[in-house]
Amino acid sequence: MKMIPILIALLINVTSFQEEPTVEVYTVEKENSIEVHARNLNEYAITLELNIVLDNLKSSKRLPFTTAIAAKADVILLELSLVDGTKKWGFTTNYSYYMGSIFADHTDNYAYRLPYRLGTEAVVAQGYNGDFSHSGRIAYSIDFDIPEGTEIYSARSGVVVDLKESFSEGGSTEYFIDKANYVTVAHNDGTFSEYSHLKENGVIVSIGQRIRTGQLLGYSGATGYVTGPHLHFNVKKAVQGGEFITIPTKFKTRKGTITLKEEEGYKAL
Asked: For the whole model, what pTM was predicted?
């Protein structure tokens, strides 16, 4: 039986880390059902959390519903069908979304390139679980001790999905925590690499740009929460609720593909 729109109550509530919505949930009415679609306009995958309150309708999938949507994708999420054709029907939709897929599976055997010029060496000033700032969700981060203005190269290929280069200051108080310049690159396994504390106007790539391993991204600095010039590097993935956790990574060195150690120097190959 064809569905007759006796009553439709469709309310969309969106929350995300951005000011303007870049993900749209919408419906397409078919002869015997209503399709619920989602369109992701971002350069990266997102996680969508969807709930629909149904009145005289049933869903093809169990609600609430969580899924990942690829970058620049438009997908059908589920279908709603009528329970009793003699009664009014309606639905209220609520959703939220955030950057990254919670289902991303990091390629643990990947050998990352050291993020500075080939043939040059840098010391790991702070490694995993470092006493100064590497704890909790950013425990698996590495600080390379390099001078301001050092060329920074991509450790892995991907797409530039976020960046900041407008900050000019740095310091060791909480005031500077959110004032670091950075570049974020999305990888094909759904994870992201982040290069932080870059110099003011020190980014030379743009959002949406596809980059290769070893491509110049910008220049190191001392912006944000720092005690001096260095490069902060980590690989991260999204977790439920919109936060990120860092992931242990290995780098290609003369000693093989290894986990870097604090206070040791490594030459980029």
From this structure: 0.89
3-state SS, residue 23: strand
Q: Which two tokens stand for residue 221?
A: 């600095």
* Residue 217: partners with Cβ closer than 8 Å, 6 or more residues away: 115, 152, 153, 154, 183, 185, 195, 203, 204, 205, 211
- Look at residue 148 and tell me whether its pLDDT is greater than 90: yes
204: left (phi over 0), alpha (psi -120 to 50) or beta: alpha
What is the spatial distance between Cα 111 and Cα 113, in angstroms, rounded to a whole number?
7
Cα 226 to Cα 145: distance, rounded to the nearest angstrom: 12
DSSP E strand stretches across 180-255: 181-186, 192-203, 210-211, 216-220, 224-225, 231-239, 243-246, 250-253
CB 80 within 8 A of CB 3: no
User: CA separation (Å) from 77 to 23, 121, 156, 221?
Assistant: 13, 49, 32, 44
